[in-house]
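Go through this:
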Amino acid sequence: MEGGARKTYDVIIVGGGPAGLTAGLYTSRSRLRSVLIDNGLLGGQMTTTELVENYPGFPHGIAGDELSRLMEEQAKRFGLEMVSQYVVEVKLEGDKKVVKTEEGTYLSDALIICTGTEYRKLGVPGEKEFAGKGVSYCATCDGAFFQGNQIVVVGGGDSALTEALYLTKFVKEVTIIHRREALRGTKIYQEKVFENPKIKMLWDSVIQEIRGDNTVHSIRVKNVKTGKVTEHDIQGVFLFVGLLPRTQFLRGLVEMDEDGYILTGDDGETSVKGIFAAGDCRKKLVRQIATAVGDGATAACAVEKYLELKG
């Protein structure tokens, strides 16, 4: 938008994961002029999931990138406009919602935030230095680079277990490092992990340092119960130690919990009238594709009612 032009819509959706794509499908189908703004690959974390087995309607599962493509195609069919830009600020001008990106300014009567989450960093020496050089946060993105290697996966939830299972296709051996003596992931994933001969467990342990030269070659690991520190020769470190909501740009505008998750009512509305949140960025019990889709549909329907009452 040259010369500081401002484009106006009925609804702006920030974030193009399953929640954002569903919200855009619903609002566009309701003939509300809608734009979805996202600076990444549409589909969000869904695109990095090799096989989605728990999304209804696909009895044999579906590749995450294919499900993303289908959702995008369906939303576009009903006229959803999509813009690939990075959002830097959201503010209010009266009851108008103003979304500023690095390229322009967008105004709307209603706003749906669907920015999702990002992987939490471990915060140990070597993590930042070796990112992309042996340290990864995405098995489906980088697994093939570790053909025949010995690697570690850090974490004990669903992401860590499913990514570890995926990595066994390529690597010689996977060691799952978990700070407790029991996993948190879904039982079916735990069963698959314990049955896989390529996967070993290192319980009650945390990484203290990631070492290497041009690439990772070892890690220092501390046993949290005994305090003993050991060094392990490995070629890759995959980190899945939790998620952080992508909501930093909204601080001071809508109410959040201490971790930055947006607080909403059952209809997805935030503490600010006309601003809604859907998907993984809002505070809720379960973060799955199915729940994100439900959130997106709910928020879109609530937006339609809000705009009707607003007149």
